Amino acid sequence: MKFYYVYMLKCSDDSIYTGMTNSINRRLEEHRMGLNPDCYTFRKRPLHLIYHQEFMQFNQAEYYEKKIKKWSQGEKLALANKDFELLKDLSVCSNKSHSDNYKK
Fold this sequence. Notes:
GIY-YIG endonuclease; alpha+beta; globular; 4 helices
């Protein structure tokens, strides 16, 4: 059975890279070796794996990766640290125009 992985790497500049692969060990080695100079992580090494999640279906992994890529760095770090209360707090929309925050 083939598995798919969504993963996050913390880069040397403290940015977080989110990716998806069907071979996490191979992909991490590719990132660490810097095989592709056009890759986001090429100039941001060393890299540290801070999170990964395994999926049995490609479409589930793809959906999750796209979802996480839209998150703030704080949300990504909360997920990586398994701080689900903080993740919940950070995910609440605080825009003044949001219906939950609109004061009549």
